[in-house]
Each structure stands twice: as C-alpha cells, then as structure tokens.
Design a protein that fits this description.
343 residues, four-stranded antiparallel sheet, Ribosomal Protein S5, domain 2, GHMP kinase
Length: 343
C-alpha cells in the first residue's frame, strides 16, 4: 500500500507533516481516515452507508532490538511531530509500567490484549519492541484516530480488524472498512458480520463539494447511546436510509444530490428528534449542508454551485477556518483513463 497519501494541500491546514519512513529492521503500516457521507446512526442497525476514506490517516512503525528484559515502548506523534502519547508495557501480559495509567493507556492495553487473544503468537519473541504512530490529521478532527490504529494493529498482528474493533471499542465497523479501502465504499453491518465493497463514487460535481470542520469533536459513544435509547427503529426507516445511500452514490447531477441530502437530513431529524445543522446554524447558505457521522460536531459537507471564494468566505465569517475541497481530502475512485495515465 502507498503510505504517502498526505497531500501538500491538506498539510496547509496542519502545523507540520507526517513522518512516514520505512524502518530498517521492522514494519510500516498505514490506515486511511474516514467520513460517513450517509447512513449515520442507522448503520448500527443494518442500514447501508456511504463511507469515504480520506487521503490523510495514521501510520504505525515497528522496530525490534535485543533485550534480556523485553518491553513494549509506544510513542504517538501528531501531524506537527509533537509527542502526545507515550506508554511502556511489560511484554508478556501488556501490564502498564507507567504510574497512574491514563484512559488512553488502558484502551491501548485492551487492544493489545485482544490482539493476543486473536493470535496467541502475537509478540511472543524475547525482544524489545518500539512502536511509533504518526497521525496525519489533528486528533480533534474526528477522522478516525482509533479506527486507523485498530486497522494498523490488526495488520501487524495478522488478525481481523473488525473482530478487534467489535471486542474493544464497538461501533458499526464502517470506519475499519474505510481504513483499508483505496476508494469510497458501501458498508452494511449484517447479522453475520460486516459487508462492504468499493463503489465508483466519482461525482461530476465534486468540485462543488467541501468539508468544513465545526471546531469541536463530537463524542461518538454519547451519540450512540442516545440513538440506542430511541430503539427499536422500524425496518422501513432502515430500508429508506439504505436506498438514499445508494441513490447518493449514483447521483448524476448536483441538483439530485442536494435533494437526497435534504431528504436524508429530514428523515434523521424526524426520527431522532434532532435539528438539521443547516436549519440550526447555516440557514442562509446558498446550497445544501449535511452532517457527517454523529450530529453536532466534527465535519459537515457543504454542496454549493457558488464559487469557491463564496463558500470559503461564508464559513470564514462564521469563524470556521477549515474548509477543504472534496478533491483534497477524499481518496477518489480512479476512472479507467486515470488508471492508464498513472502507468
């Protein structure tokens, strides 16, 4: 897999760059970030969802060294190269050696122990293990710091990332599918496990689509708990959301796409008793706006026929400085002609 997906255009929104260097005596893994274009909330109950892998993600580097007292040393860096997380584990049971373990340390410990349960041979050699993870996006953006980590650990341990996710953090699993996909996907969580497949989502109007960061991260677990409190949800609503996801993926015009956005927002709003973000904060925007993932935080999608300068200035005046064009954030489906040009 190509691990250099971070574009220079994205980096202008960050303080620095990713450090993706192949270790001399170890491994390197990479997972894409994610955005959920449709199916939010109801994907948990089997609705089809349209997931978009992002060009930015997270890398995980592993190196080994001889040791008579093996330990696992873990360091995590943000896009600027600043160390934001560090922990040391006792090797055989992944006991935390730091005093006063944090919540993040305990979650990582659970992931490593679950990986060992899925593969009893994982990290059994008597060597020191040095792990360095590198985010390509700010933690607060909500693009999948946990899902990319789970994907990378699963690759490293040679286990199922979905089983690792479901047995630790839970969720629908669409973010795990995005982490390993090189193009947009249709995802569905079935009774026998996740089902997902790449889809040719390559809208002719993508130059009129923008992703805007709302300035704060939404707690996904709180959103899921709220959704669960309103269960059961009827099969009709699940089927309607699924149909809208498929129609959004194949929309031929921006007018059709905008209509589907409005329909999706109205249905989720009605059933979950939540106010659509456009009505709440951007009622005078020339175009349509859709929440992505848990409502009330992270990113929104703006679809407008207006010039790029209009969109940027509109959200600038709202105090929202991160406005990223679709092409600069999403891993795109390559057309046959584009594939030919690559070679």
């Amino acid at each position: 897999m190509n691990t250099t997906h971070t574009s220079n255009n994205i980096l202008k929104y960050l303080e620095g760059e990713q450090f993706l260097e192949l270790p001399k005596n170890g491994q390197l893994y990479f997972g894409h970030g994610k955005l959920l274009l449709s199916g939010e909330y109801f994907v948990l109950d089997g609705a089809k969802a349209l997931g978009l892998p992002t060009t930015v993600g997270q890398s995980l580097r592993v190196q080994y060294s001889s040791s008579f007292d093996p330990k696992l040393y873990w360091k995590s860096y943000d896009p600027a190269g600043k160390l934001w997380f560090e922990v040391t584990f006792e090797f055989w049971h992944f006991n935390i050696l730091n005093e006063n373990p944090t919540k993040e340390m305990i979650v990582l410990q659970q992931m490593l122990r679950q990986a060992r349960r899925q593969n009893k041979h994982f990290l059994r050699d008597g060597v020191d293990v040095h792990v360095v993870t590198q985010l390509g996006f700010p933690l607060e953006w909500g693009l999948g710091s946990s899902s990319t980590l789970i994907h990378n650990i699963a690759d490293w341990a040679m286990i199922s990332p979905f089983e690792l996710a479901f047995n630790t953090l839970g969720g629908s699993g669409y973010d795990i599918a995005c982490a390993q996909s090189e193009e947009p996907i249709i995802y569905q969580k079935g009774g026998e496990g996740p089902n997902w497949s790449p889809i040719e989502f390559n809208p002719s109007f993508k130059n009129n689509l923008y992703f805007i960061y709302l300035g704060h991260k939404k707690n996904s677990r709180d959103a899921i708990e709220y959704y669960n409190e309103l269960r059961p949800h009827s099969p009709e609503i699940i089927n309607t959301i699924s149909e809208l996801s498929m129609q959004m993926a194949t929309a031929n015009t921006q007018e059709e796409f905008n209509f589907l956005i409005r329909a999706h927002e109205d249905i989720v709003s009605s059933h979950l008793k939540l106010s659509p973000i456009k009505k709440e904060a951007f009622s005078d925007f020339d175009g349509e706006i859709k929440s992505l993932g848990a409502w009330g935080g992270d990113f929104i999608l703006a679809s407008s026929n207006g010039p790029r300068k209009y969109v940027k200035n509109y959200f600038d005046q709202k105090g929202l400085k991160v406005c990223i064009p679709y092409r600069e954030l999403i891993v795109e489906t390559q057309t046959p002609s584009e594939i030919k040009n690559v070679h």
